[in-house]
Specification:
Blueprint: H1 9-31, E1 35-38, E2 42-45, H2 46-54, H3 66-69, H4 77-98, H5 100-123, H6 135-148, E3 153-156, E4 160-163, H7 164-178, H8 187-215, H9 223-230, H10 236-257, H11 264-280
Antiparallel strand pairs: 1-2, 3-4
Helix pairs in contact: 1-2, 1-4, 4-5, 4-6, 4-10, 5-6, 5-8, 6-8, 7-8
Length: about 280
């Protein structure tokens, strides 16, 4: 598993925010038993207040803040640990591939849609249970992981080795079977996250990148630029600084927009820069 300091910034921020809310709810509420007396809410445990004000209630769809806040509320230790492990293990790869902007947008979209999906099923009379936790958003991220890395293997439920392209559908079938069971797990929110994940990935693969290319057409490079890229530096140190600057710009672009945003010239530059670095280090 990737060390925390090497995770994409978006993942680190999400982990920290979730951990902070959990610490307040679990440590101050459950362990220390801190109570508050809030106007309009009465006297109660701080953990109960966090759930009361932060959870999403399908029966109260107009309380708009809940579509976001519920994603960061965890009051059960194993619920928190399992969700954060999913975010750590699968979110990092997706964030590196999509870029921070798309990853964050997809995470929030899937979480909000999962809550809205629960509201729609509440209107249909299938559920009225409040929901908390990041599971809906994470199921959407799992869809992205399934689309990008279908042949990768994982231990489903930490026990069964399985490829992502199969595990995805096993989890969907499991949620469909367990949804009416009343086991206290927000299976409908999970399914809403899956639906949202496929919606976002459809536009990511067929819409967002095309619109991005229309708004930002590829820069036409002159023959002089091409000759400069292919030539050796006359003044090595000056050229090395310029080369490093361009390398940093390309890496920043990958972080913002994903590796798929690079044009052919940028890809070739990275390949050439890698070869030069290996030669400097005495590599083959």
């Amino acid at each position: 598993m990737t060390p925390f300091r090497f995770l994409p910034k978006a993942i680190r921020i999400l982990l920290i925010v979730n951990a902070a809310v959990f610490a307040i709810a679990f440590v101050l509420g459950s362990v220390m038993g801190l109570h508050l007396n809030l106007p309009g809410a009465g006297y109660g445990n701080i953990r109960d207040y966090i759930v009361y004000f932060g959870a999403f209630f399908p029966t109260s769809p107009l309380e708009a803040w809940r579509y976001l806040t519920y994603m960061f509320v965890h009051v059960d230790f194993w619920h928190f640990v399992f969700n954060m492990l999913m975010l750590w293990m699968f979110g990092g790869s997706v964030a590196e591939y999509m870029g921070a902007k798309h990853f964050t947008a997809m995470y929030l979209f899937c979480g909000v849609f999962a809550a809205f999906f629960s509201f729609m099923l509440c209107m249909a009379g299938l559920t009225n249970n409040p929901i908390i936790g990041a599971s809906g958003a994470l199921m959407g991220i799992f869809v992205a992981c399934y689309r990008f890395f279908p042949e990768s293997r994982l231990l489903l439920f930490f026990v069964v080795p399985m490829k992502l392209k199969h595990a995805m559908w096993v989890m969907v079938i499991f949620d469909l079977i367990m949804a009416p069971s009343g086991d206290g797990v927000a299976h409908f929110a999970h399914l809403g996250g899956v639906v949202a994940g496929f919606i976002y990935m459809y536009f990511y693969e067929n819409g967002f990148r095309k619109l991005h290319n229309i708004r930002k057409p590829r820069r036409r490079e002159s023959s002089a630029d091409n000759r400069q890229d292919d030539s050796e530096a006359i003044e090595g140190e000056v050229f090395y600084v310029d080369e490093q600057k361009r390398m940093n710009e390309i890496l920043d672009k990958v972080n913002r927009e994903g590796i798929q945003s690079l044009n052919e010239s940028e890809r070739q530059f990275l390949l050439r820069a890698g070869d030069k670095l290996r030669r400097r280090r005495g590599g083959l």
